[in-house]
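Thread: sanity check for a docking pose with S-adenosylmethionine

Original post by kr_44:
Hi all, I'm comparing my docking run against an independent structure prediction. Below are the sequence and the ligand SMILES. Could someone generate the full complex and paste the structure tokens? I mainly care about where the ligand ends up relative to the chain.
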Amino acid sequence: MQNIDQFVDDHLDLQVRISYPQHHDFLIRHGLGLCSHVLDVGTGNGTFVSRLAQDHPHIQFVGIDKRKQYIEISKKVTRENLSTEHIDMFSRASTFDFSRFDGVLMRYFLLHVDNARKIFDLFKIKSLRPSKFWIIDLDWSVFTCEPHHDSFIKLTKLVKAFCSKISVHSSAGQNVLPILQELNYQNIYVEHLPFSSQKIALEDFALYLKQEVQCYSMMMGKDVNDPETIEIIRFVDEDFRSGGYHISYGMVLISAELE
Ligand SMILES: C[S@@+](CC[C@H](N)C(=O)[O-])C[C@H]1O[C@@H](n2cnc3c(N)ncnc32)[C@H](O)[C@@H]1O
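Reply from moderator J.T.:
Ran it for you. Here is the predicted complex with S-adenosylmethionine included:
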């Protein structure tokens, strides 16, 4: 099997390909065009922010990530209005200036951190006023398979086991709303926009689910012959791909402001 970083890199690219139009549309409807400096927290390989930079040449974008390997990959694409930096959001030693951004994007980021509240506390203290926030993440309330299939339940358990391994709550995306309310962020808006077989081409969605299983399985340290992984992949490749199942892989999109 290929190297895990290369695998995750390809998977992030596929995620962007299937969801960019909808996620971009959400950002536009929630004020992206009014911003001049946008920070992308946990930018990964930078594919999403790079598309944004291409579509919005008048906005300056900065992507940050704690993984140096991703920052190196992101630097392969150069755009005048995009830079990326190797920064850990939780590093006390960092002198990174958060106060220069009037827009902050966190796309598939909170699922990977064990303390979402700390992040919103930090922005509450350090952000420019006014500034806009967009959070795009998993939403377990709309994670379903019709008709029921045991292998799908195993898929959900695999994702939850991974979250638990890295001490992250698997409902990270859903839990953002009460945090924002408690911290008095304003103009909070929530939209549920699941990846689903009704909206995404079946082939793309099947590939996405298969790669999702392979990613989490690798990250859990399982080998290629792990029977459960093989069983879930068979379900995706054969049963789901044949069109017999409707899967909704929940995504929540939230926007908020600090005035
Ligand atoms: C799934 S990727 C998100 C990729 C990207 N935002 C996108 O939309 O394609 C999550 C990223 O968050 C990064 N990350 C996790 N904790 C972080 C932290 N404390 N500071 C900065 N980046 C972090 C990880 O290294 C990973 O690249």
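The CA atoms of residues 159 and 193 lie 19 Å apart. Hope that helps with the comparison, let us know if your pose agrees.
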